[in-house]
């Protein structure tokens, strides 16, 4: 009888130890599962943010190029016109006014998209490039673009060069932050890599 009791106690001890081991393993598995879920959620959030940046940066680059073209055209047209106080009904006045209107609309669009880019970026290089473009864009002074200003050609050329250079800096900085042209993790599997297509214009 003592042997039976000892055997029963041994069996119960084995069950208890086994249950404890199972509980420990279950706790570990649950911990790993939570860690995997957190990692996947973080990767999904990173992917969503990357997509939002990519869309915003592409729109900003398009707006920069459009503004640069319209500012350049407005300067060229106005540089052939008389000074604003002398224009009155000069034939070139309507066209000059129209180009200034288009330039103003393009500048407004860039300013709006600038705020979106600054909200999304974590790159100091992107922020610096955006600031340089904004400074150059805001220095556009159409009242200096008239044939009475002997320095109008040099001023216009300097302005366009500043706009183009700061735009190029933004493209480089945006590509670096987005890792365009580089391999990066995709989806839940860290080992799986893909090359991001460079479709920036």
Note down, in words, how this protein is organized.
- There is one protein chain.
- With 201 residues, the chain is mainly alpha-helical.
- It has 5 helices and 2 strands, in the order H-H-H-H-H-E-E.
- The chain has helices at 2-79, 84-87, 93-120, 124-138, 152-178; strands spanning 183-186, 189-195.
- A two-stranded antiparallel ribbon has the order 1-2.
- A hairpin with a 2-residue loop joins strand 1 (183-186) and strand 2.
- Helix 4 (124-138) packs antiparallel against helix 5 (152-178).
- The protein is rod-shaped.
Biggest beta sheet attributes: 2 strands, antiparallel
Low-confidence stretches: 183-201
Helix and strand run: HHHHHEE
- Strand residues, percent: 5-15%
The helical percent reads: over 70%
List the helices and strands and how they pair.
Elements (H helix, E strand, L loop, with lengths): L1 H78 L4 H4 L5 H28 L3 H15 L13 H27 L4 E4 L2 E7 L6
Antiparallel strand pairs: 1-2
Quick rundown:
The chain is mainly alpha-helical and 201 residues long. It is built from five helices and two strands.
Give the key terms.
mainly alpha; about 200 residues; disordered C terminus; 5 helices
């Amino acid at each position: 009888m003592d042997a039976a009791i000892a055997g029963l106690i041994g069996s119960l001890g084995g069950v208890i130890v086994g249950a404890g081991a199972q509980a420990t393993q279950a706790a570990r598995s649950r911990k790993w599962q939570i860690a995997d879920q957190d990692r996947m959620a973080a990767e999904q959030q990173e992917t969503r943010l990357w997509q939002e940046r990519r869309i915003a940066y592409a729109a900003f680059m398009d707006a920069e190029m459009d503004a640069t073209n319209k500012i350049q055209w407005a300067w060229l047209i106005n540089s052939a016109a008389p000074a604003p106080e002398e224009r009155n009904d000069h034939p070139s006045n309507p066209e000059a006014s129209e180009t200034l209107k288009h330039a103003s609309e393009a500048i407004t669009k860039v300013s709006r998209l600038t705020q979106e880019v600054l909200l999304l970026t974590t790159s100091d290089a992107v922020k610096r490039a955006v600031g340089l473009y904004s400074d150059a864009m805001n220095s556009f002074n159409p009242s200096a673009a008239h044939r009475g200003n002997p320095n109008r050609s040099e001023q216009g050329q300097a302005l366009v060069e500043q706009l183009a250079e700061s735009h190029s800096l933004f493209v480089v900085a945006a590509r670096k932050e987005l890792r365009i042209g580089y391999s990066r993790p995709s989806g839940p599997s860290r080992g799986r890599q893909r090359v991001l297509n460079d479709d920036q214009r």
